[in-house]
DNA sequence: AACTGCACCAACCGCGCGACA
DNA sequence: GTGTCGCGCGGTTGGTGCAGT
């Protein structure tokens, strides 16, 4: 019968997204929330296919995304997880909630893979092939293990949201239940639109530089601190590359220099709360009905006991990944 | 200065899966 | 049980910038 194309190829725009398109998309999602991508192009007037819109949102515009500058800790995690899971980038990304699968995949293909191959070549030259010993488990077992973990994490996200909400000193950034999704997404999307504002800021700066070198930076900032789009823009964040917009970092303290520094000091910050908050809330696309109120105390205990048993510090790194530790 | 090769990364493409009628 | 639809995932491609010649 043949699968119909995901969208009408006629009149569909391809290639890089413009800042204007980004704003349109973010504005729409801010209003309606992510999901139902099928109708996004028609409702927004964007000449993009629904998949392109979804991809743009999940890989680039979604709040909470950390871009570029993989820390040493993150590198190790990716190497570990890739050894364990193989090229299941979405599963790997679930352990690094600030990173998208696409980002991790790219980083692996461009950096880590080559580095490891080089290193493996050296090892084989030095001491013969010991690589085969690094796969003690059957692949099916790995998958099973991963799927169990992912299922647990998904449950954990769903179950912990209310706890997370009540534990927060200021619950404003995380209004939790689905019946209150608007406020959640509004705050999250506000950060996203702020990102757009920063992108636009740099975009115009770049175009200004090309046409009129040396124009003042503050003027561009003020012109794009539109309250309807972004809320603030720190002057220290003025140097954003248009091709690799660092300004798209996450917005709640997971991001950039602070977390990088702490992680590079060997103390992994992927505690359960962070993972839950990022994966469950910021992604904003969980299919779990968070309004479900059911007697899951037993399950909750199991989940949180498990998380705490692994310890908050480095609880992700301790996942029986010793076989790949030698790769680093 | 011009050309070439390479690295990087955003975006696209095709397929599989689950939900639903 | 079957077909359709929407979404997510992984592999791949194409554009861009940079370094080397």
TrEMBL record:
Major place of residence: nucleus
Record-linked InterPro entries: Homeodomain-like_sf, Myb_dom, Myb_TF_plants, SANT/Myb
Job of this protein: Transcription factor.
Compartments, as annotated in UniProt: Nucleus
Protein name, as recorded: Uncharacterized protein
One Gene Ontology biological process: response to auxin
Biased composition (Polar residues): 122-136, 229-244, 253-265
Pfam families: Myb_DNA-binding
Residue ranges of domain HTH myb-type in the record: 9-61, 62-116
Extent of Low complexity compositional bias: 207-228
PANTHER family listed in its UniProt record: MYB FAMILY TRANSCRIPTION FACTOR, OS07G0484700 PROTEIN
Keyword terms: DNA-binding, Nucleus, Repeat
Domain (Myb-like): residue spans on this chain: 9-61, 62-112
Organism domain of life: Eukaryota
């Amino acid at each position: 019968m043949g699968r119909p194309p995901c969208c009408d190829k006629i009149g569909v725009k391809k290639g890089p997204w413009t800042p204007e398109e980004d704003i349109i998309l973010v504005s729409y999602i801010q209003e309606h929330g992510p999901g139902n991508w099928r109708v996004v192009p028609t409702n927004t007037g964007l000449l993009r296919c629904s998949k392109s819109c979804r991809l743009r949102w999940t890989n680039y515009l979604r709040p909470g995304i950390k871009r570029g500058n993989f820390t040493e800790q993150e590198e190790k995690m990716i190497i570990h997880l890739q050894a364990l899971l193989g090229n299941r980038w979405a599963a790997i990304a679930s352990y690094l909630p600030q990173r998208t699968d696409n980002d991790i995949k790219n980083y692996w293909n461009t950096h880590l893979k080559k580095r490891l191959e080089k290193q493996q070549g050296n090892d084989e030259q030095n001491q013969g092939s010991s690589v085969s010993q690094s796969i003690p488990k059957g692949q099916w077992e790995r998958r099973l293990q991963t799927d169990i973990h992912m299922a647990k994490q998904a449950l954990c996200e769903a179950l912990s949201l209310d706890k997370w909400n009540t534990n927060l000193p200021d619950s404003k950034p995380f209004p939790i239940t689905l019946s209150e999704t608007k406020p959640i997404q509004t705050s999250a999307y506000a950060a996203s639109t702020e990102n757009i504002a920063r992108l636009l800021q740099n975009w115009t700066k770049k175009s200004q530089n090309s046409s009129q070198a040396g124009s003042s930076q503050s003027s561009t900032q003020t012109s794009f601190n539109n309250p309807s789009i972004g809320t603030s823009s720190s002057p220290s964040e003025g140097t954003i590359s248009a091709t690799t917009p660092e300004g798209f970092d996450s917005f709640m303290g997971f991001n950039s220099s602070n977390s990088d520094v702490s992680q590079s000091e060997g103390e992994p910050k992927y505690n359960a709360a962070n993972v839950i908050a990022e994966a469950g809330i910021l992604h904003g696309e969980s299919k779990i009905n968070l309004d479900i109120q059911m007697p899951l105390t037993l399950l909750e205990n199991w989940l949180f006991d498990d998380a705490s048993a692994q310890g908050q510090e480095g609880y992700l790194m301790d996942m029986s990944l010793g076989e790949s530790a030698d790769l680093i």
